[in-house]
Amino acid sequence: MRAVVQRTLRSSVTVDDQTIAIIDQGLTVLLGVGHGDTEEDAGYLAEKIVNLRIFSDAGGKMNLSLLDISGELLIVSQFTLFGDCRKGRRPSFDAAAPPQVAQQLYEKFMERCASLGAKVACGKFQSEMVVALDNHGPVTILLDSKKNF
Question: Does the reported pTM lie above 0.85?
Answer without folding.
Answer: yes
